[in-house]
Amino acid sequence: MTRRIVVMLMMLLVVAAGMGIYAWRLHKKVTADEERLAQQQQSAAPPANGPTTNVTLYLASDADATLYKKQLSIPLPAERSEQARAILRALFGTYLQSGSQHPIGAGADIRDVYLLNDGSAVVDTNAAFADAHPSGVLAEELTITSIVATLNANDAKINRVKIIVNGAERDTLAGHADLRRFYVASNIGQLAKELQ
Amino acid sequence: LEVTELSFGLRRPVTFAVLIVVAAGVLAIQFTGRRSIVHAQVGAPGQIAVFSPQSSYAIPVVDVGGQPYVGLVDLLEPLGSVETKLDGKKLKLHFSSAGNKQQEAELHDGKNDIKVGGKKLKLPANFVLQNGRGYISLSSVSELLPRLGLQPVDYRTASQRLLIGNVAQRFTAELKKGTPSRLLLGFPAPVNPTVATEPGKVRLTFKRDPVVAPEPTVHYDDPLITGTSFSEHNGIAELEITGSAPLMANFADGGKTIIVTAAPAPAPTQAVQQLPLSVPQTAATALPQPTPQAPPRPRFLVVIDPAHGGADIGAAITPQLPEKDVVLALARRVQHELQARGIAASLLRNGDYAIGLDQRATSINAARPALYIALHAANTGKGVHVFTELLPAESAEPGGFLPWDAAQAAYADLSGTVAGSISAELENRKLPNSTLPAPLRPMNNVAAPAIAVEIAPPGASVDEIASVNYQTQVAQSIAAGVQAVRAKLPEVNP
């Protein structure tokens, strides 16, 4: 083996080591960015200015499979669909706090709420809501019941709710609860009573 | 080699280069070794059919380093009680089957020396661990199973059929010459092959019966039936009967006898159609005769659906324990407990493969069960949750046309009765439980009484969800709950 080949091998080793260090730093940066983004999304909450209004949240608890009511005072926009969105973002904000009794996937958010004249509401969630939601019949059912009951408790005109993900229909939330159907508020109200 | 020389490298360049090449070689071996196992998980080439006195089922075969392997727990679970414990690269296994004492085995990843019941055993190929699951080569199955108390073992390589215990059904073939001649096939137990006919041939395909032939081919010196040919492939057995004229097959003696004879000639005129088509009875035909098709008798069948399967793992109970495996083990226990109470039960999924939600619903409704039970598992909550479908009760009568998405509504009351009965049995066994409606597919599409059961760990430890004791208690509760309300559930015509 000539000296030239040895030098070349050494140079290749140095380059490989350099690339390794660069990849490691890049990985750390991406992780830090993701954490920062998740923290930003975890604080998904209504705007903190303006007069506040009392809203009712139906919060789920996994440990004992129950729903309980909680009053919260938050600033609400004037428009109905924006109000519904703000209330659901407050609900998600509670679930995303550390120590939540019903954790949902990091980054879960409400993209939009569409209200139709026949009393239907279509809740458009982001992909993280469904992709990172804990999988299980009970866990998914509690989330859906919590969303529908909360919407109906704060806007009695909403009598049925459909949940879509990233603007599209999805078969199930996380492998179990059906997302293809409209949930009738009176049915869910009955279920919410059983769960209290 | 001197450390100083190595650290500078340039003084002995050849040594240094050799070291780099060796290091690269080691890395390459590691890399390719990992790839071969990963490939095994992705590219499953097929499956084997397993027949045993306890259960008949199919398990997937994976390719590890060019050799066919099967999951150890997949293979053993339907045959008895299995508990595994992973300790680094070592898998400890406790297995017991009916009538045999519990056996303990120790297997190490990448090694073929194992211990069973304290004695050493050398397998033909290495044991492999992948994602916490143990795999053994098909060539090792015949060595390992007898040591676990399961024998005799007959692995039929060509047909990928594994016969455990004395389950092989050797049939007899007797030609009764006459006008027309008849071939009488006798089986030790009732069989249920699919029958296909084509000009001059009848083909019997045995998918669920461990049928084996005394001879692969037989030739007959007969003007009508000229011979039989037996073959096995892809987990099934086929018996082809050839003749010089169109043939037909009739079942007799409760499915233990199949009679192959000439198919009746097509009727040329109305007058001939009115003639009796039955074969004239002769003194020589003392053997069982084909019985006329009786109207189907109503029967009580429970279809058990272990949710998920294949790439759809369901919930990750732990990183090594997917929901699909937990519910398959539970489903087999529920089936066993139901059968022990004299209730016919079948599994919608009896292996690790995917079934879509609509496909599940179609299969369930086609089976026309008296009851459908879906099984789920999760690591949230505690104890057992029994669900009925969350649908508004509708006035639709069972039996008529039902809307696909709300077919379950007509059976809501009966489903609630079953759920309540199971909940009471869980209560009797002091298992924490609740009964709730849930929006769960494909339960809403099922045109029969239907419930879903989701098990969560009974206590603080998540691993308890897979414990034999817990699952057996849950399975007994479900079976006892069904048995208690069986009289209220209608039997259904198949």
What does this structure look like?
The complex is a heterodimer of chains A (196) and B (494). With 196 residues, chain A is α+β, with helices and mostly antiparallel strands. Chain A has helices at residues 3-42, 80-96, 127-131, 137-154, 185-195, and strands at residues 52-61, 66-75, 110-115, 120-125, 160-165, 183-184. In chain A, the strands form two sheets. A four-stranded mixed beta sheet of chain A has the order 3-4-5-6. A two-stranded antiparallel sheet of chain A has the order 1-2. In chain A, a hairpin with a 4-residue loop joins strand 3 and strand 4. Chain A starts with a helix and ends with a helix. Chain B is 24% helix and 33% strand. Chain B has 494 residues and is of the alpha+beta class. Chain B has a seven-stranded mixed beta sheet, with helices on both faces. The model of chain B is unreliable at 1-11, 28-45 and 269-290 (pLDDT under 50). Chain B is built from nine helices and 31 strands. In chain B, helix 6 packs across helix 9 (468-485). Chains A and B meet through helix 1, helix 4, strand 6 and helix 5 of A and helix 2 and strand 30 of B.
Main pleated-sheet profile of chain A = 4 strands, mixed
Question: Structural class of the helices, strands and pairings of chain B?
Answer: alpha+beta
In spatial order, strands of the major sheet of chain B run 9-10-3-2-1-12-11
Global mean pLDDT of chain B: 81
Name the helicity range of chain B: 10-25%
Distance, first to last CA of chain B: 80 Å
Overall pLDDT of chain A: 90
Radius of gyration of chain B: 28 Å
Q: Outline the low-pLDDT stretches of chain B.
A: 1-11, 28-45, 269-290
Sketch the topology of chain A as an H/E string, one letter per element: HEEHEEHHEEH
Q: What shape does the CA trace of chain B take?
A: globular
- What does the overall shape of chain A look like? elongated
